[in-house]
Amino acid sequence: MTRILLLAFGVPALLVACAPDIGGHDDTAADTAAPEGNVDEGDGTTTTVLDATDYETWVYFELESASTVSVGDPESSQGWDLAFQRYLPKLNGGVSGSGGVEVAVLEGDDFDAITTAPDDGYVTDEPDADEDGVPEYAMAGWYDYDEATHVLSSKDDLVYVLRSVEGGFFKVRIESYYDDAGTPGFMTFRWGAVASP
Amino acid sequence: MVARPGHRFVRSRIENEFHFQYGLLLALLAWPAVAHAGDEPDEPDDPALVGDEPILEIVVTATRTETPLGDSPVAVEVIDRDEIEASGAQTLDELLEEHPGMDVSRSFAGSTIRMQGLDPQQVLVLVDGQRVIGRKAGAVDLSRYPVEWIERVEIVKGPSSVLYGSDAMGGVINIITRRPTAPLSAELYGSYGTLAAVDLAAGVGVRRERVSTMFTGGFHRADAYDLDPRDVATSGSAYSGFDVGNRTELRLSPDWRVIGRGGYLFRDSRGIDTSDGGAVFDRRNLTEEGQVALGLDGWPTGRSRLQVTGYATWYRDQYDSDQRDSSALDTYEDTRERLAQLAVQYDRYLGESHLVTVGTEGLNEWMLSDRLEAGSGERWRLALFAQDEWDLSDAPRLTLLPGARLDLDTQFGVHPTPKLSARFDPVERLVIRASYGWGYRAPSFKELLLYFENPGAGYVVAGNLELVPETSRNASLGVEWEPTDWLWLSLGAFRNDLDNLITTGTLEEAEAGSPTRYGYVNVADAYTQGGEAALALGLPAGIGVDLGYALTDTRDLVEDRPLEGRALHRGTFRLTWRYEPWGTLAVLRGSLVGSRPYYLDVDGDGVEDRSDAEPYATLDARISKELWGAVSLFAGADNLLDAGDAEWTPLPPRSFYAGLTGRYPWEVRRHGAPEGGTEP
């Protein structure tokens, strides 16, 4: 009888120790491949993917050199044009920087058809006006937010024309907030130089 | 022997105990007044026995004491072993989904159940009277429990917090584990079906004078299924798992016994998920559950019974979600829970008409989870309960059952739950039951202690230590009428008023540098009300018909709309045909579920929009044939109408199966010997 009781309680107790831990599996090569970089679209425009997944640091980008740059003091640096942190975009101008970058927001314009920058309508980053703790970034309206799914989708009829720190003009359209693996925070945008107004 | 009906129900309960567990000796000693009633255990006019087959089904859940089903002052529904085997169900959820008034739905949390329109977290699931742990999003996944564990399922609808405490608001589902039915018994079960479903189960039982024990084990697997081929996500996970269980009873003396129970369940399930942002995840879930209980049960005197039970259970859920082509969104969560409980229950007959039950439970609950702010949570609870089953009159029978329970918890303090039930039999074969009682649910560790940050969407969900229990007040009325031996009718109505329901609300709007904080708050109020009707008909030529209908009207009083996911109308039916000369049993069962409201913000304006899930019908068929008494062959089909959709109703698709059962001793199975209790 003791044996039966031992079986009844001992067997399940032993089995509990048998289940393996399933966390901490190895990453595959595909898991660690960086989706960042530039792709030349062949029509004078480039598609750039920036890893803006970090919640604290901004990723700074310079249009003329088509590269991310590291910036010591973003407010005084003249080495960057625009930057992203998660879904937030900022310009090297207004409250965000001293580079004088400005943007014209064109709604409903065909990205491919834009070859010349507009004459006017340029704005830049302004101080926080709606008291949400975030400055009024000039490019903040780039996305639609789905309350139900928390998905950010870019407004594809929105084209930004930027005047860079160095005075060049560039058209920019934000394509996606997600990389091919579906990770949010990978800011994907297509851009190219346009003629001055 | 002539006994008044009021007497008979008390005594026949005792006699069953004695016949099947202790023999006659104690009956003769302890019940001299009725001793001759037990002189011949197989005496045909004994209400407990006809021939060698007991016709009285014993239930324990309603009052925490063994009571013949027909004598229970509180309505209990039973799914017995014969019905379980005839259904073809492999798990508890499959068994319940075509039972009247049971609302089983499938989601990421598994197969979960609503009763009387109340949420799965407001339904208490017990195994041999002991609460199970391991709730996902508040719900117990009923597909965890394989039928090879289950001798019978007892269902009590409406609140039972008066006896069982927290969570018993919408109802209680008590799984009674297998008991041996013969001196030596063995059974084997094997089936194969669609989705490469393999179900194997075995049981071995020994029933001797001093010891009875039953071992059960099983293995189950099936492939995943997908109801929406447009994406790679699966609608139902692939799974494989095994289970072992044992219940052993040792008779120390004619009036004392020790009962031990142990069980272990292991399940590995895998599926594919997609995020709305386009990410694809390979998901794996490893769950384990162990339960052990040890109890002492006996009769200090012939008119009093003492049960002391220690119980421990632990549960571990490992959840791993591996993003394809990236590791940025990989998540792994390891959740562990433990519960230990010591319960003492004392029943005593007072005078001619009172059966008084008093008891106490001490409970310790512990949880370890990455999602909890401090990493773990622990709490203690002490409960005292008492009830009096009071026979006011024998002809016509009138029984009152007042009871109350007081829970003292280290988190929410003192919480009382009273209940008054009454049974009145104005004439023979007509039973009227009414009750008014309270129910409650203690806030879960996650609701109290969660810390979950979603910076991508800019919010934080935090637990709230100020939460108090959710409460309900319930009124029920039911009528059962059995005008003839082949017809049984039942009608019932209920109303639940729910207060302090826990829901998420905004605690703090987003500010500079801090995201919006959501938290759990006791703000929601709701009601559920409705009725149930059931009919059982035994026709000639071995044909049986069962019909059930449930009306469930609910309203969220804060949002002023029906509660999500509840169907106003649900119907169930079962047709059985037993043809003895061929040893054939055919069962056709199904359900009809009306449309159900869901609320989602589909247009992104920040306001939830109502969508209604389509009504659906399920139909299962099964036929079995005994080959040589020992071996039966069976085949069946589930979800013949191929109901279900990926969005709201992820039912497994139409599937077919066939298999064999083998049994020793050879004769056709009879109802199991009535035993049990809230003991293990």
Structural commentary:
- The complex is a heterodimer of chains A (197) and B (680).
- Helix content of chain A is 10%, strand content 34%.
- Chain A contains 2 helices and 13 strands.
- Chain A starts with a helix and ends with a strand.
- Chain B has a single domain, classed as Maltoporin, Chain A (Beta Barrel).
- The radius of gyration of chain B is 25 Å and the shape is globular.
- Chain B starts with a helix and ends in a 16-residue tail after the last strand.
- The N terminus and C terminus of chain B are likely disordered.
- At the A-B interface, helix 1 and helix 2 of A face strand 15, strand 16, strand 17 and strand 18 of B.
What is this structure, in a nutshell?
The complex is a heterodimer of chains A (197) and B (680). Chain A is mainly beta and 197 residues long.
Topology:
The complex is a heterodimer of chains A (197) and B (680).
Chain A lengths: L1 H15 L12 H4 L4 E4 L4 E7 L7 E4 L4 E3 L12 E4 L2 E4 L10 E6 L14 E2 L19 E3 L6 E3 L3 E6 L5 E10 L5 E11 L3
Antiparallel strand pairs in A: 1-2, 2-13, 3-4, 3-5, 5-6, 7-8, 7-11, 9-10, 11-12, 12-13
Chain B lengths: L4 H18 L2 H6 L18 E2 L2 E2 L3 E2 L7 E2 L8 E3 L1 H7 L4 H5 L5 E6 L2 E6 L7 E5 L2 E2 L18 E8 L3 H4 L6 E7 L6 E10 L3 E11 L3 E12 L15 E16 L2 E19 L5 E22 L2 E20 L7 E20 L3 E15 L7 E19 L2 E13 L3 E13 L4 E12 L3 H5 L1 E4 L4 E4 L7 E15 L2 E22 L7 E24 L3 E14 L12 E11 L4 E10 L2 E5 L8 E5 L2 E11 L4 E8 L16 E10 L16
Parallel strand pairs in B: 8-11, 26-29
Antiparallel strand pairs in B: 1-2, 3-4, 5-10, 6-7, 8-9, 10-11, 12-13, 12-37, 13-14, 14-15, 15-16, 16-17, 17-18, 18-19, 19-20, 20-21, 21-22, 22-23, 23-24, 24-27, 25-26, 27-28, 28-29, 29-30, 30-31, 31-32, 32-35, 33-34, 35-36, 36-37
